[in-house]
Design a protein that fits this description.
With about 220 residues, this protein is α/β, with parallel strands linked by helices. It is built from eight helices and seven strands; from the N terminus they run βαβαβββαβαβαααα. The protein has helices at about 10-20, 35-45, 60-70, 85-95, 110-120, 140-160, 170-200, 210-215, and strands at about 1-5, 30, 50-55, 55, 60, 80, 100-105. The strands form two sheets. A five-stranded parallel β-sheet has the order 2-1-3-6-7, sandwiched between helices. A two-stranded antiparallel ribbon has the order 4-5. Helix 2 runs parallel beside helix 3, helix 4 crosses helix 6 (about 140-160) and helix 4 (about 85-95) crosses helix 7. The mean pLDDT is about 80.
Length: about 220
């Protein structure tokens, strides 16, 4: 497989290339330091299987490169890499069509895992650990997180497309996506409260039901 690395730090690109080429599935790695070089490399190399793209390329914007690449090839897997991990940036990347958001703070093993997930056609983004999450097998939790991530990605892209965010400034895009995320979380919490009420109250009278009695007992 051929990979295009787009980052304005040469040492980072070299280190990432060494990491990727240690995997048998990666055969060739192309480099670009700017948006213009990235688009040129993509035009000159028709067999690119994956693009690893920095969120900020000096004075260039990774989101602009992402949108240009997806316009040329909508099926092309593009993973955004960044030193930032805030939800607005992640949503902005996923909404613009990224297949993954890979923080630069990941370990080498985690980075390889993320890249392999994208190459297998999956979506990847950092998922915070919840200390209060239900116990269960790691595989069950991974499946649940992947399902949640896919829903969140669809949500982000609907918001992105509906508001034509690609034509706005990047800061405005991030702010808008953050507002949309807060609204989405509020709706989830509202639905959760409603489900809890339905679980412990009689739907007709609103009085506590047997389940709540047993729970309190």
């Amino acid at each position: 497989m051929n990979v295009l690395l787009v980052d304005d730090h040469e040492l980072f690109r070299q280190g990432l290339e060494m990491l990727l080429t240690s995997q048998a599935s990666i055969t060739r790695v192309f480099h670009a330091a700017t948006a213009a070089q990235a688009l040129q490399q993509f035009n000159e190399q028709p067999d690119i299987d994956l693009v690893l793209l920095d969120y900020k390329l000096g004075s260039d914007r990774g989101i602009d490169v992402l949108l240009s690449l997806k316009k040329k090839d909508p099926a092309l897997p593009v993973a955004i890499i960044s030193g930032r991990e805030d939800s607005e940036v992640i949503l902005c990347a996923l909404g613009a069509g990224a297949s993954a958001f890979i923080p630069k703070t990941l370990t080498t093993e985690e980075t390889l895992k993320a890249v392999n997930l994208v190459l297998d056609g999956n979506i990847y983004a950092p998922w915070p650990e919840d200390p209060g999450e239900n116990p269960g097998s790691q595989s069950d939790r991974d499946v649940a997180r992947q399902q949640q991530l896919q829903k969140l990605t669809l949500f982000a892209r609907e918001v992105f497309d509906a508001n034509h965010l690609h034509s706005q400034e990047q800061a405005a895009v991030e702010t808008h996506m953050g507002t949309a995320l807060n609204t989405w979380v509020a709706e989830i919490q509202k639905d959760r409260s409603r489900l809890e009420s339905l679980a412990f109250q009689d739907d007709l009278t609103g009085l506590a039901n047997r389940r709540l009695f047993l729970e309190r007992l």
